[in-house]
Amino acid sequence: MKHLPYLLIPVLFACLANQAVLAQGFSYDGNRWYELEVSIFSHENGGSSNEQVITDHIDLSYPELILLLEPAVSSFMVDFAPDNPLPVFQSPALQPQTPAETVLIGPETAPGESDFRLTDFSRDPYIALGSDEAEFSEYNRDIERSPDHRLLFHAVWRQPVLNQVQATAIFVSGGDQYGRHHELEGSLRFSFNVNRVDVEARLWLATFSAFAFTNAGNPDWQLPDPPFKTGDETLTLELPVTDIGYMDQVRPMISNELHYLDHPDFGMLVQIRPYELPQPTNFAFE
What are φ and ψ of residue 232, in 5° steps? Predict the structure, then answer.
């Protein structure tokens, strides 16, 4: 608890005071759906974490079932022909507005070829939703205003929560980019366990340095290749890793409660909110 921003402590204790578990029913597709929100932030004065890590026990790897949250604005990205360029606006006030604002804080997905389809924000899973669906805006502002913390990742999305064998993990990356890697990488997996939802957080926060040296106190850390290409692919300079803060926690979740997972180098706020999948709408033309 000592690493939790002071402005968040009263909110957390107020949430923990109510321990009633809210039952979540099945949607029409036979699954339990939840809306999930996560913020991950650094402890800038956390200090070195090597002394708390046993290298033989670290498993820097990704689950076999893993996917990348799709930014909401991707469904509005349409390629225009070269002979029909977009107009250039000189004033920032005249810039066109994004059709759907995303609150995904982290590296952007690298552009690629994909079949165009309109996103159904109320029914499609694993879509990084806009600020209208976010409830962590005030917490994130408090974190960003604090000189002791830095917001690395934030996203809100909906998904069916399955059992542990079937559950798919979410790829997490955020912070500054160094070559193929970002400071924060890892995965989050939400699964249903008898009568509750568990979150499995396997995350690592790496420190990169151009002046690294090798000795007994600085192990030669090797980061696994990210399962997805994100960020600026033109940044190819690989720097050595001099320190890693590693989080490997499984925590039971209570619906609609604010949960905090702590680590000397970084922390995570997470909330799961029951969501009822809307019934499909049938259109008929007469």
Answer: -90, 110
Position 132 scores a pLDDT of 87
Residues in the chain: 286
Three-state secondary-structure class, residue 206: strand
8 Å CB contact between 169 and 121:
no
Count CB-CB contacts under 10 A for residue 17. 8
Strand 241-253 with 32-43, pairing: unpaired
- Asked if residues 212 and 221 have their Cβ atoms less than 8 Å apart, the reply is no
pLDDT bin (cut points 50, 70, 90) of residue 7 is low
Asked which of 14-23, 49-58, 209-218 is least confident by mean pLDDT, the reply is 14-23
- Does residue 203 sit in helix, strand or coil? strand
User: What tokens were used for 124?
Assistant: 């499609």
User: What does residue 197 show for φ and ψ, rounded to 5 degrees?
Assistant: -110, 130
Which residues are registered as beta bridge partners of 97?
none
